Amino acid sequence: MELQILISKKGTHVVTATNLYDALQLPPHKYNSNVAKWMSDFYAFSDDIRLPKLLSDYAERKLKLSKRKDFYLSVELAKLIALNSNSKVKQEYARYLKRAQDRIKVDGKFSKEQIFTVLELTKAMGLISCQKLVEKEHMKKYEQKTGYPHKWWEYRAQLLGYSADELQEKMKEVGKNYKGKNLLQMLIHLDKYEIIRMAVIDLFLALGKSPSYSKNMGDLAKVFAKEMKIEIFDDRKSTINYLPKDVNPQMVEEVKTLNATNLLKAC
């Protein structure tokens, strides 16, 4: 069943409780009791673990001649409700809502020029040669700025939100061998699109942008990488000058030469 995301006159993206309930294929006769529980349960929102807030996370939808009390739900709340439900199809709809939530964040945060530039960057950052170069340049800038090269990995773990040790634990959880594997090799198994995010963050920090700006750009790139299903390509092993389809050679050149003029002008 299609789950519709509506846009209010104020530009807010919402899902109706009735549509969500039907899409999740939950028992029709338990609608009222289940929806009442939705409104009174605790959820792990992006800002805190808390109850849904009236007029912020949800609002009543007034319908005539309906036995079911309906609500407008924020996309985030709808996603959390889906995940907490007993539905057999909850993963499908939670992922759909997560993608919608990511697109909403993108639309409200970046200019068209920034979006286009990061879109092209995302494709280029599928190349391991680009990833390695920007990491090296970021490390060089960090060492010049702090004078503490031995703290690089600790700093980078805090910046990215995870460490090599944490990735090793996740590898064990999914039954993968982590011994002898570096960060890139572990992320290939765990979350290959995180590699794109990591590379874009490295690039903008190497170009002198702030950590918050660089992470925003990296988050945007990861959204694009997921949508386009970007593959990680080791072009270092290629015997000919070959680039994957849709990768812009000019953008690759700008990354590899750290052409700050063009990149920073766009972003």
Mean pLDDT: 88
- The count of domains is 2
Main sheet: strands, sense, barrel = 4 strands, antiparallel
> Could you state the order of secondary-structure elements as H and E?
EEHHEEEEHHHHHHHHHHH
Distance between the termini: 40 Å
Number of strands: 6
Shape: elongated
Helix/strand-derived category reads alpha+beta
Helix content: 55-70%
Strand content is 5-15%
Rg value: 22 Å
Unreliable spans: none
- Sheet with most strands: strand arrangement: 1-2-6-5
Number of contiguous helices: 13
What does the model show?
The structure is a single chain. The protein is of the alpha+beta class and 267 residues long. The protein folds into two domains: 102 residues, no CATH class; 155 residues, no CATH class. Helix content is 58%, strand content 7%. It is built from 13 helices and six strands. A hairpin with a 5-residue loop joins β1 and β2. The longest helix has 20 residues.
